[in-house]
Amino acid sequence: MKYLTLAFTLFIGTVMAEPIPLEELALSTIPKQLAQVELPSGMRVYADPGAPPTLIHYLRQAGNEIVDSHPYDLAIMPYGSALATDVHLGIWYESQGGFGHHLVKLTPELLDKKVKAMECFHLSQSKRTDFPGIIEAMAEAFEGAEAFEWDECQSMEDFDALIIAAPHPDDAEIGAGALIATLENTSTQVIVWNLAAGHRALMEGQDLSGGAHYSQSLMKKVPGSGAITDPAVKREIRAEESFHALHYLNGQITVRQLDLPFYEAPGYQTGADDASPLNEELSQLQDKKILILAPYPKDEHPAHRMSAYLIEQVAMEHPNVTMGYYRTPWSDYYNLYLYGQSGSKLGALVGTERLAGKGERAYSLEQLGGPLAERYLVFKRDESL
Q: Exposed, middle or buried, 284 (CB in 10 Å: 0-12/13-18/19+)?
């Protein structure tokens, strides 16, 4: 599967449509982008074998025929394949290879439940992070659904248990909250592994006021106002928030706060001390057919990437486990790194999700066209030559 980064401009024939700056496109999601341009229709389009599937999807939707040989009207080829005389129709950047094989439709009720799970229970972060904006924008990017990748020949009903591996104690709710909720009162056992404590997040005592779900013993340790600095207290806060949010989504869920050591390691490097607890967890489920969902391996957040790598390595040792992936705000063509501070309804990476040196501003055009992206040209041959 190709893992690319997204931005797209389009020109129709030799007449240029109203130009759309790449900077602006970097601030929008695919459906918004395509609404701003007129896709060609009724054409034979040659697609390179590695061409972005999402672009092919939309070209087909617009009434074009995708072909693998001459003659053709348009071509989708890797950047650098076109001749100087070709008429360029645009450049496409894509990440993660398009739509997921498995979608969970976000009804208004499910969308509202996801938002409430974050706003009502993750109080330590909700003042700094636009959870409603993030959740609604992710839903819009996938045409009103949560999108997942696993063996397309298998449905959720084929598994006895679902494990969602969350690098931080809110990633499962954000990326798979609807899936978790729809599995309530079903035969599928749902388990969330919170791999890390998330105690590096900024927190202030006053943000927790009114949170009836916090235990009395915890609140005695929390200052009435000002920064919360004790890492142990912050661990407790994140754990209790995630526990209650996940049980709000699914009353039968099992939440395992694992606090693996990789979170404290340089570069989030994983090792045997991280794998051992996961193997122990799986040994207790060896009689079940399990689907494990982790963030995409190409997720921009390093903790997410290393979590995916860790889960993949562990899953390989267990023949009853199928590996799959879910999206976070740091993955796929909906990627918060591509949002700028101004003009974005998400306000870029707000609050504690911002990493040092990243998320402060949109990628530069040089970065979009550099090693972070694999570019594909859409072009038309000049038939007069």
A: exposed
Half-sphere exposure of 37 (CA within 13 A, CB side): 27
What pLDDT score does 31 carry? Answer: 33
* Rounded CA separation 118/373 (Å): 32
Instruction: Give the 3-state secondary structure percentages of the chain, helix then strand then coil, rounded to 5.
Output: 35, 15, 50
CB 59 within 8 A of CB 39: yes
278-289: pLDDT as tens digits = 999 999 999 999
Which candidate, 337, 341, 321, places its Cα nearest to that of 329?
A: 337
347 in Cβ contact with 12 (< 8 Å) = no
DSSP-derived secondary structure for 172-213: HHHHHHHHHHHTTTSSSEEEEEE-S--TTS--BGGGGTT-TT
Instruction: For residue 349, count CB atoms less than 10 angstroms from its CB and return exposed for 0-12, middle for 13-18, buried for 19 or more.
Output: buried
**Looking at residue 156, what is its pLDDT?**
93
Domain boundaries, the chain: 7-98+367-380, 103-326
- Rounded Cα distance between 13 and 142, Å, is 29
Residue 161 pLDDT greater than 60, yes or no: yes
Q: Reduce the DSSP state of residue 165 to 3 states and report it.
A: strand
Q: How far apart are CA 340 and CA 368, in angstroms?
A: 14
- Identity (one letter) of the amino acid at 237? I
For residue 341, pLDDT beyond 60: no
- In angstroms, rounded to a whole number, what is the distance separating the alpha carbons of residues 70 and 296? 36
What number does CATH give the domain 103-326?
Answer: 3.40.50
- Give the side-chain half-sphere CA count within 13 A for 28: 17
- Cis preceding linkage at 71, omega within 30: yes
State how far the Cα of 163 lies from the Cα of 269, in Å rounded to an integer.
22
What are the pLDDT digits (tens) for 212-239?
A: 999 999 999 999 999 999 999 999 999 9
- Which neighbouring-strand residues pair with 256? 193
Ramachandran sector of residue 97 (left: φ over 0; alpha: ψ -120 to 50; beta: rest): left
Distances (CA, A) of 339 to 22, 36, 125, 213, 242: 12, 18, 20, 33, 27
Rounded to the nearest 5 degrees, what angle is found at the Cα of 215, between the Cα atoms of 213 and 218?
125
